[in-house]
């Protein structure tokens, strides 16, 4: 399997684990020192440090009932990104954002994740 094929497979596995709540599956994809950085000023913003903290971040985000629609899986020569459209509703507050979740890979696992958002103010309003 080529590097690009492996990165695409890892991205598909990550997305499937996220939408199905397979937290052990996500943890298996991460290095112990993995990080996940999100923009904004809300309960999920900042950097989660360590594989277990990254899984806790994924659980926290999913607990808000998001629909994680996968638009595209993207690869570079060494890394992978998921292009997503996330939507959810909490009372009168609606989340409707496009994002790129960029995963830097090391030895076939995720070393770091950085998420880029289309609507940081909307994210701040939703994740309180």
Automatic annotation (TrEMBL):
<protein>
    <submittedName>
        <fullName>Nuclear transport factor 2 family protein</fullName>
    </submittedName>
</protein>
<dbReference type="Pfam" id="PF12680">
    <property type="entry name" value="SnoaL_2"/>
</dbReference>
<feature type="domain" description="SnoaL-like">
    <location>
        <begin position="12"/>
        <end position="112"/>
    </location>
</feature>
<dbReference type="InterPro" id="IPR037401">
    <property type="entry name" value="SnoaL-like"/>
</dbReference>
<dbReference type="InterPro" id="IPR032710">
    <property type="entry name" value="NTF2-like_dom_sf"/>
</dbReference>
């Amino acid at each position: 399997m080529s590097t690009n094929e492996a990165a695409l497979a890892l991205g598909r596995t990550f997305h499937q684990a996220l939408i199905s709540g397979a937290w052990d599956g996500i943890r298996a994809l991460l290095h112990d020192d993995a990080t996940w950085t999100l923009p904004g000023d809300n309960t999920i913003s900042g950097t989660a440090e360590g594989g277990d903290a990254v899984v806790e971040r994924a659980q926290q985000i999913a607990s808000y009932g998001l629909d994680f629609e996968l638009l595209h899986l993207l690869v570079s020569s060494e890394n992978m990104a998921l292009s997503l459209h996330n939507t959810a509703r909490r009372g009168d507050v609606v989340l409707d954002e496009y994002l790129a979740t960029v995963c830097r890979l090391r030895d076939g696992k995720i070393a770091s994740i950085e998420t880029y958002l289309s609507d940081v103010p909307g994210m701040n309003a939703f994740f309180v």
